[in-house]
Amino acid sequence: MTGVLTKYFDLTDAQVQQFAALDALYREWNARINVISRKDIDSLYVNHVLHSLAIARVCEFAPGAEVLDIGCGGGFPTIPLAILFPEVRFTAVDSIGKKIKVVEAVAQGVGLRNVQAVHARVETLPRMFDYVVSRAVAQTSVLMDWSWNKIARSQCGSRPSGMLLLKGGDLTEELSAAGCKCEVFEISKWFSEPFFETKKVVFVPKQ
User: Which end of the chain is more exposed for a tag (fewer CB within 10 A), N or C?
Assistant: First the structure.
């Protein structure tokens, strides 16, 4: 199951074990709370875990960095990134309480100590972060409205602070409407699986 991950990332034995544990945990919780579509659960490692890790191809977070995941759902991209970057602090936020319950349970199940799951709206968070990540939650302009003032001007990784967004399809109109300076990276340049043919990471640096 984790072979698709070790194909692209150098992982420690402990990380491989943590990633391997995700399958049973998500199957168990998905039976109670549908956070991944039933037909998609068999593609967990490509469609969800590896997809989340594409962010690491754009920015290598430094130890001590603070990362905010907006609309974390069942824990993507937070959980995979927290396994990959154990010395980075992740705050996963969602307005739906049952999804936060899943994130907390999965984080505990794989022994993550660097994840805080919060049932709240982004706008109510009292502190600042170095990076914001998100996957298919809202238009870029909306995400900026919600969180731009939560991003510190810093560099706690291989890129300056900003937003790292997992997107798909033609983003021309969306990014034009956002009116922001950004870089768009094709995930298919890194990962060969067909799922990634139209998938992208958008990096919006804090100006």
Answer: C
pLDDT 10s digits, 162-196: 999 999 999 999 998 988 899 999 999 999 999 99
* CA-closest candidate to residue 145, choices 160, 132, 154: 132
| Residues 54 and 201: beta-carbon distance below 8 Å | yes
Length of the chain: 207
Map out the domains of the chain as residue ranges. 3-205
Domain 3-205 grouped into CATH 3.40.50.150: yes
Per residue, the 3-state secondary structure of 107-125, as one string, reads HHHCCCCCEEEEECCHHHC
pTM (whole model) above 0.90: yes
Q: What percent of the chain stands above pLDDT 90? A: 82
Residues ≥6 apart with Cβ < 8 Å to 110: 18, 21, 22, 25, 79, 83
